[in-house]
């Protein structure tokens, strides 16, 4: 019997063309967003043409984008954006630590859950702007007043994300961990917290949204003269009836919020794919 009969015919895999797979995927991601932006700009332009409000109150998209181009060339704009971003990162980081610790304790200790579980949800539903009179009374017109409200705005959402994530971990996971000899600390470190991670990231996304909204409200109310910020720039534009500057600043705030939300959403999708909760369509 010849070797050609014994040896199966195995077809060689087709060579993978580098870069051939990402282009359609990227296009599928870009075109809906580009279409949405074009629709918004078209509606904006139509409303401008309708004469619904005077041009000095409601400028056209072209005028607003032109003003945005002028703004980004100034040092004051980047200083204002830097102040806002630093405040957002600092407040969210502190809320992350506090919310995570509270969430783990409430999920683990039943009496504590009974005592403050509903309080956390109540704090989450409370409008952040309602805290500012107290914050200003406690800290004055200072950075600490803004930080106080940002943390109170974000921490409850993060804590609830931790609690929900831990509650949704199947009990079989922890039982298996005990069978394999894992102690209480090892169970939380190696089993419970990793399994709760997708829900936790969703809580972080919501916490960021609350932190960002709280920060913008704070910068509108607590204006520190020596520290320009995007919120203060909004207020000054309103006071001096600079509608193009006001709308351009609002666009910057919107874009920053969308970028960070996109990062959280990407992290959440990656975690779900790794755990088999979502199929990659690419």
Keywords:
MetI-like fold; 282 residues; mainly alpha
Give a concise summary:
With 282 residues, the chain is mostly helical.
How would you describe what is shown here?
The protein has helices at 3-6, 22-50, 61-71, 75-108, 110-125, 132-139, 143-167, 171-179, 184-221, 230-239, 243-274. With 282 residues, the protein is mainly α. The protein has one domain (60-274): MetI-like (MetI-like fold, Orthogonal Bundle), CATH 1.10.3720.10. Helix 4 packs antiparallel against helix 5 (110-125) and helix 9 runs parallel beside helix 10. The two termini are 46 Å apart.
What is the secondary structure topology, with strand pairs?
Elements: H1 3-6, H2 22-50, H3 61-71, H4 75-108, H5 110-125, H6 132-139, H7 143-167, H8 171-179, H9 184-221, H10 230-239, H11 243-274
Helix pairs in contact: 3-11, 4-5, 4-7, 4-9, 4-10, 5-7, 6-7, 7-9, 8-9, 9-10, 9-11, 10-11
Radius of gyration: 26 Å
Summarize model confidence as the mean pLDDT: 84
Overall body shape: globular
- Any idea what the CATH architecture is? Orthogonal Bundle
Structural class: mainly alpha
């Amino acid at each position: 019997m010849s070797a050609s009969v014994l040896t199966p015919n195995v077809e060689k895999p087709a060579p993978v063309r580098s870069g051939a797979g990402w282009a359609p995927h990227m296009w599928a991601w870009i075109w809906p967003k580009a279409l949405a932006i074009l629709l918004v700009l078209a509606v904006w332009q139509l409303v401008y043409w309708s004469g619904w409000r005077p041009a000095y109150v409601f400028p056209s998209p072209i005028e607003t984008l032109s003003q945005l181009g002028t703004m980004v060339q100034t040092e004051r704009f980047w200083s204002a954006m830097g102040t806002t971003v630093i405040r957002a990162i600092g407040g969210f980081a502190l809320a992350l630590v506090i919310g995570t610790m509270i969430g783990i304790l409430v999920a683990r200790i039943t009496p504590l859950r009974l005592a403050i579980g509903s309080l956390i949800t109540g704090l989450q539903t409370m409008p952040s702007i309602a805290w500012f009179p107290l914050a200003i009374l406690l800290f004055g017109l200072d950075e600490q007043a803004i930080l106080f409200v940002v943390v109170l705005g974000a921490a409850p959402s993060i804590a609830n994300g931790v609690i929900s994530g831990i509650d949704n971990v199947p009990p079989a996971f922890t039982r298996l961990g005990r069978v394999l000899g894992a102690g209480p600390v090892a169970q939380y470190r190696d089993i419970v917290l990793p399994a709760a991670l997708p829900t936790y990231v969703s809580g972080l996304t919501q916490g960021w949204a609350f932190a960002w909204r709280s920060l913008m409200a704070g910068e509108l109310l607590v204006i520190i003269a020596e520290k320009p910020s995007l919120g203060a720039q909004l207020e000054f534009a309103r006071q001096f009836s600079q509608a193009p500057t006001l709308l351009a600043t609002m666009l910057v705030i919107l874009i920053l919020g969308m970028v960070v939300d996109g990062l959280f959403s990407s992290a959440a999708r990656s975690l779900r794919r790794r755990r088999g909760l979502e199929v990659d369509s690419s």
